[in-house]
Specification:
Layout lengths: L1 E13 L4 H14 E14 L1 H16 L3 E6 L4 H8 L13 E3 L2 E2 L10
Helix pairs in contact: 1-2
Length: 114
């Protein structure tokens, strides 16, 4: 298994029809690399099925003592999908680690906090 960070770029509109392909792509990356960085800056739309794939991939990485990080634009498609699904139950919390604008999202970074 290679130690360098492997980058996976996801873009365009991703939905249910893409979920299996994204899952296979992420599992292959985790099979070959100890550290994976997912760049979703090119996403224009995402639905909950892809969010579920991302959560599962991060849990798989953690279970195998690997690193899988997600970089996303704050207020971009991923944050909107996560919020719409009710997965940000408190301002600044998420069911998985996301780097909004290069830093992990916390209450101070959350543009929707009260």
């Amino acid at each position: 298994m290679k130690r360098q960070v492997h980058r996976v770029k996801l873009g365009g509109e991703l939905g249910l029809r893409d979920a299996d392909g994204v899952r296979e792509q992420l599992l292959a990356a985790l099979h070959d690399h100890a550290s994976v960085q997912i760049d979703i800056s090119g996403l224009t739309a995402i639905d909950i099925s892809i969010v579920q794939v991302l959560i599962a991939a991060q849990k798989t990485a953690k279970h195998h003592n690997q690193s899988l990080k997600i970089s996303a634009k704050a207020e971009g498609p991923l944050q909107k999908a996560v919020r719409r699904a009710g997965l940000l139950d408190r301002p600044g919390t998420a069911p998985f680690e996301i780097q909004w604008k290069g830093t992990p999202l916390d209450v101070e970074d959350d543009p929707y906090r009260g």
